[in-house]
Design goal:
Elements (H helix, E strand, L loop, with lengths): L1 E6 L13 E7 L4 E6 L5 H5 L10 E3 L5 H4 L2 H10 L9 E5 L3 H9 L11 E5 L6 E3 L2 E7 L8 E10 L5 E8 L7 H6 L5 E5 L17 H11 L3 E5 L7 H8 L6 E4 L5 E3 L1
Parallel strand pairs: 3-4, 4-5, 5-6, 10-11, 11-12, 12-13
Antiparallel strand pairs: 1-2, 1-14, 2-3, 7-8, 8-9, 9-10
Helix pairs in contact: 6-7
């Protein structure tokens, strides 16, 4: 499985990165599949550096804050109004139950049909996995102040040409504060892509919203994750500070996500 950091800026796009969007690619032995984790504000332009929009096999939304979903509005335009015709059919979108109505309202459309002619909206069910090609994605309800927010556990089975399957796991926190479900989602993950929007000391008075580098690292250590990639840092959160908070709590591979970087898992 290959992870491409399309956008990793927290809460809104920054000068070096769009908001949250992560491209995963994997091969099932017949072809390469491409899915997106979130499609936040500013991400649609950047994602076209890495794939043709008609090659998106599915989009998995962690929750409905604009920095994680709002560029569905732009993708709607691409699907509906491509003068050469959109040939890929409706784009599959998994997300909270309110996704279809929220995105229609954001674009000023009637709720029916909204964007249902462009998107095949499907609702998450807590800890119930869905399968798209080689990707098995399981949502875990986490601790963030919206009606539905999920961490996503992504497991892939790929073949390397020897006939022996290789199973890899990526866990994505979405947005969350510390909670047991986050640890469950990241259990034994090869790579834990985890938000760390807050800083110790600066944001101690706020609970139930975001993690710090320290709390992300504690979750990764408890889960037994092998590598921790900190993401969703807003422009006012210093990467070096977040890394320094995380290091004492986690002894595996540790880094901060940077837009445009690829990881092989």
């Amino acid at each position: 499985m290959k992870l491409t950091i399309v956008g990793c800026s927290g809460s809104f796009p920054g000068p070096q990165s769009p908001a949250s969007c992560y491209l995963l690619t994997a091969n099932d032995g017949d072809r390469t599949w491409r899915v997106l984790l979130d499609l936040g504000s500013g991400a649609l332009g950047a994602v076209q550096r890495y794939l043709d929009l008609q090659d998106i096999d599915a989009i998995f939304l962690s929750h409905l804050h604009p920095d994680h979903c709002m560029d569905l509005c732009g993708l709607h335009v691409a699907v509906r109004w491509d003068p050469q015709g959109w040939k890929a059919g409706r784009v599959k979108v998994w997300g909270p139950a309110a996704t279809a109505d929220r995105i229609a309202t954001a674009y000023g459309l009637d709720l029916e049909p909204g964007m249902r002619e462009e998107f095949d909206f499907r609702n998450w069910a807590e800890r119930t996995p869905v399968q798209v090609g080689p990707f098995r994605v399981t949502p875990y309800a986490v601790n963030h102040p919206v009606e539905e927010a999920y961490a996503l556990r992504v497991e892939t089975t790929e073949w390397d040409g020897t006939g022996v399957p290789r199973v890899t796991t990526l866990a994505y926190s979405g947005d969350t504060d510390s909670c047991p479900a986050l640890v469950d989602a990241a259990r034994d993950a090869h790579l834990f892509l985890c938000e760390a929007a807050f800083q110790e000391g600066r944001d101690d008075g706020i609970s139930g919203v975001h993690l710090t580098g320290k709390r992300a690292a504690e979750a990764a250590a408890e889960a037994g994750a092998r590598r921790l990639l900190l993401t969703h840092l807003p422009v006012w959160t210093d990467a070096a500070t977040v890394l320094a908070e995380a290091r004492p709590a986690f002894d595996g591979g540790l880094a901060v996500a940077v837009a445009g970087v690829h990881y092989h898992i």
